[in-house]
Amino acid sequence: MPTARDAESKPSHPNSQTTPSLPAQYSPFSTPQKWTIVAISAYAAWFSTLSSLIYYPAIPSLAASLHTSVSKINLTVTVYMAVASIAPALVGDTADILGRRPVYIVCLGVYAAANLAVAVAETYPTLLGLRVLQALAISGTFSIAYGAIADVTSPAERGSFAALVSFAVGVAPTLGPILGGALTYAAGWPWIFWFLCIASGSCLLIVILFLPETCRGIVGDGSGSLRPYQRPLLPGVMRPYTHDQAGGLGDSAERTPGPVGGDKRRFPNPLRSITLLARPDNTIIITACGLLYTVYTCIMASLATLFVPIYGLSQWEAGLIYIPFGTGGIVSTFISGRIMDRAWRDARIKRGLPVDKGRGDDLDTFPVERARLGVIWLPMGLTVAFVVGFGWALHFQTHMAVPLVLQFFAGLVYNTLLVDKNHRSPAAAQAASNIIRGALSAIMISFLQNMIDRIGIGWTFTFQAGLCLIAAVLFLMDHRSGMQWRQKSNEK
Fold this sequence. Notes:
This protein is an all-alpha fold. It folds into two domains: about 25-260, Up-down Bundle (Growth Hormone, Chain: A); about 270-490, Up-down Bundle (Growth Hormone, Chain: A). Helix content is about 70%, strand content about 0%. It is built from 19 helices and no strands. Helix 4 crosses helix 19 and helix 13 runs antiparallel to helix 18. The longest helix is centred in the C-terminal third of the chain and has 66 residues, at about 425-490. The termini are close together. It comes from Aspergillus lucknowensis. Its main location: membrane. It is a multi-pass membrane protein. This is Major facilitator superfamily domain-containing protein. Keywords: Membrane, Transmembrane, Transmembrane helix, Transport.
């Protein structure tokens, strides 16, 4: 097994070692077809975040309409978050074993039906039960989206495509509260769920009509013949197939190893996501991301509750303060995607390796940690400084317009690195991340207001900046030793 030192060494001639083992074309899809597949996946992933945030403005109206208390309606939020932290573990490995397409169809179908039922719900127990069903159905689509990215994009181009999913998820914090408030004000709270039903139903129709099966553990690179259920109803719109016959994998298709090298499992294992945490390199970067997500969640949760009393904002103005934060993050995702692709290319060139976005790279022997994390240090340092500034600016009630967009950049780097590290089971790996970050953020949110009351706004966010600093140290550990840990785990 090659070591990190071997991977770091530069061959005497750029083609002397790489030409004989030049990898095959990674995917037969054209660039527009790749963008279409990733866009459909991003659309489905959008609902995983939107479903929670669009709900908040309707809480008072729901309480009045269902003749219950606001605290009970808040319980539906807590239950939704709890289920959404665990459900991706059920969905992620299922998508790696059974395929992306059937899991998307089931998840979106159940989610659309649940929204339809909530829209006509008349009792609180019905609402509570349906919110659980919503979370079970849709929260795993974020994990599947990153699996689809790994299916059709090579590591050299993966950053730009991952940015599209980050855009879809990042726009929800801005659009969700505004859209939910507008629908509640104009037509009543049921129209929030009518909107989600119609939007998710349209996504389901798009998946059925246009999205082919892409899971490389099932269809290889996808160039061979596909079984009928693996094909979209309008396959010619996406691409012509190499073979017209239904049946197994075509001869020209590249079949990659299953979720665990050589493993022939036929049944999904919900605990697969947990077992991925046994690898120290996975644990380190998942914990680092969990800390960053916790800080991001605390900032989002505190925007309205702090800005309204400090600056005397109205409820409508309180909704608008999310716009700069979300807009900055959206812009950041597109810039950072290009930066990541360029950093990957530079890392390949530095080691005398070929750079071809159309071909795959041997991720088991290439130091992906250094290629991905090499661009994260300046954004992480600025993020620490900005979080501290955010807290003390509010403490002294000064003008504050820091959107902390660099956290989005760190999150995009992390998600892409996690896919590269676990390229045989990317959806399960993202599900493991979702569990950890959901648990950490839920714990911190429960103590946030008490921290603000006891030590003040400034010191609370100084502590949050400390969490970002710890995340940076963890990234540094993975940058230095992640490849050795990963290779030792692969040997086992």
